[in-house]
Amino acid sequence: MNEKYEKMWEDLGLDISAHDGLLKVLGQFYGDIYLSQDKRLKGMEYLDFVLSEVHGLRIKELQDARAAGKKIIGTFCMFVPEELICAANSTAVGLCAGAEIGKEAAEKILPRNTCALIKSFVGFKLAKLCPYVESCDLVIGETTCDGKKKAYEIFQEYVPMHIMELPQMKGACDRDLYMTEVLKFKAKIEEVSGHDITADNLKEAIKLINNRRKALQRLNQLRKAIPTPISGRDVLLINQISFYDDPWRFTAKINELCDELEKRVQAGEGIVENDIPRLMMSGCPMAVPNWKLPYVVESSGAVIVGEESCIGTRNTRDLVDETGETMEKMINALVDRYMRIDCACFTPNPERLEHIVEMAKDLKVNGVIHYALQFCHPYTIEAYKVEKALEQENIPLLRIETDYSMEDIEQLKTRVEAFVEMVK
Amino acid sequence: MSLFDRLSEKSQLEIETAKEVGTKVVGLYCTFAPKELVRAVGAIPVGLCGKDQTPIRDAETILPANLCPLIKSSYGYAITNTCPYFYLSDFLIGETTCDGKKKMFELLGQLKPLFLMHLPPCCDENRSLNYWVGEVIRLKDFLERQTGTKIGEEELSRQIKIHNKKRVLLKEIVGYCANYPVPISGTDMMVVMESRNFLVDIEGYINNLQRLARELQAIKREGRSVCSPDAPRILLTGCPVGKGSEKVLRIIEECGGVVVCQEHCTGIKSFNLLVDEDDAPYKAIAHRYLKTPCSCMTPNQGRIELLCQLIEDFKIQGVVDLTWQCCHTYNVESYLIKTFLEKRYQIPLLHLETDYSESDTGQLKTRIEALLEMFH
Ligand code: SF4
Ligand code: SF4
Description:
The structure holds two protein chains of two kinds. Chain A is an alpha/beta fold. Helices cover 54% and strands 10% of the residues of chain A. Chain A is built from 19 helices and eight strands. In chain A, strand 1, helix 5 and strand 2 form a beta-alpha-beta unit. Chain B has a domain of 141 residues: Rossmann fold. In chain B, helix 11 packs across helix 15. Helices cover 50% and strands 11% of the residues of chain B. Chain B is α/β, with parallel strands linked by helices. Bound molecules: iron/sulfur cluster (SF4) (2 copies). The site of one iron/sulfur cluster has 12 residues of chain A, from helix 7, helix 9 and helix 18.
């Protein structure tokens, strides 16, 4: 696709040769990790296509939309209510990044021991690698973790930003605080987009985003079947793509894929044998193209049947109540839904432990892999509590701390294989 | 200075005696906890922030190794029950400053009753003051419940005045280093400043500070100095430093520099602001504490302003910005501080990232020497 889009990338200010390098790595990874899988669903072709065009056609669409007056809003976190962005006739894109390639640039302004996700999005910007961030009219940050909160102070020098303050507890005053921030965010989006958010367009946006969540919920229901009908890698990819692709198209395509999956489940077909250990991932988000650990796990004789993560069930579990007709009711419904997020940034965060246990039982997993990015304090510390909670249910847990480099892949393999052997 | 020798041991005995008559002891971890309230219910606040390497190994059996040594040390002391002040504490106050502490407090709360104050991440008054006032009041209710003592208006304003007095005195004392001769080393100054963290008798401490102030004044009049006139004048900023974790401070002074000013939490940051004695007390307290220029705030413009003022007032020639390993907030902020200060004052800033161990002492020494050499 390179020649076709080169002009567009140049206009966006990308560093063409570095960007070519990124696409090459991405293509190679994708070939090795995705296209080589057996018994893949036909519906995955859509995802293959979207991914192959993730810096091409999708960016072109965004540029066309901008030319027609739409605004593009970048986000890093699921606490930013996408519904308000859609309601203001704008498009939300996820900017979390999952590649090591901009690391060197990032480390010029950020400490080396910052979580890989943060270094990656900063590096993408500094090394001019990401057409999404270059397409954004506004980028929304949030005070989730220390690393992000402070990195945004520097990142602000490079992109126009609006920072949302997030509460860290779930009392009544915290809900009020979040409500204030949501209203401020709404005003900001209205200002940037030049569109008023009305009860009508918000109602529609709530439905739209709920429908996307419902499609992903349906997928998660279907994949529970034994034998496992779809790989964990594929589901991760689907979750990742949900942050980039057009929500209408994405929902339609995932529902088609689910239709196919349904048939497969009815026919009792799977991608692996019945007795292969079923594992669940829990912890930090995995952004494109961070497929390292799922690949290691699924090539170690296990299959992943759930991801408890922001790029996973944390993002799809709860719907926004659709019954509200007035602006006030709808905003309240949004706030209720978003305040239920069980991110480790909250203290305490008992809901997450409950959800993990519930999910592990429901999916009948043999074990859980707790995945944390190195230097991510909220998740690395909470891992201890997760371990204790699962211990009570006799569900084994493997704690992994890693980053985006490939250096530890052999070591991860050894540990994962031993774990799989143990839970068999 | 002898007044401040072995103060910690003396305090321990006094605390034990006070406990026998039912006085409560409250363990604190951070500058954001309003001590006025603790005193107003008749309890004794003690600082529990871990400054020593010893208990870290035990902490790492539960906490990740990639965590700031201060958090690991604090938690390690608690689980091994090796800190006498932790042992003596009836309950604890924590706050949601940084991620590491916030999540560590969840575990610490399993050992002793812990009240967690939710500190908003933005110190902008419009955004956060009301919220923080709410937290201060929640703390008051907690303290009243725990001690069975109601806070009277009068007692609270008396405490506000005493604490302000202490702050003013500390400011006066550090001010004696603002120009040559320098009557007290940074290392000794740290002991003076830190001793306020475990006092039974705050009035006695104030008397001691007054005597020290007179002493320093006299030394200054006589023209005596702990260093030569050309010793490089260093400002130490960044993560908190105290007894057990003073290695960088010590090395600077061993290598011929003089730390004339310390901005970190044990230092000026924690006493340069006063509580407004004319305002409604809870709001005034909330207001003052919210303005603490800690890196956990975003943005933290207050720290830049304070640093500028100190660089000018103390005629600073070089800045050492200390980050404890894996303290994200200070670590990330160091880039902003460095670029700003170097541009504005053309003075060098040395950013050091280290932990409590002595393993990198040689390396630190080399880097600090290189900094100090620039002034010769
Ligand atoms: S993975 Fe952890 S450290 Fe990284 S951005 Fe998320 S919460 Fe922050
Ligand atoms: S030094 Fe940094 S990481 Fe450590 S307790 Fe203080 S703010 Fe937290």
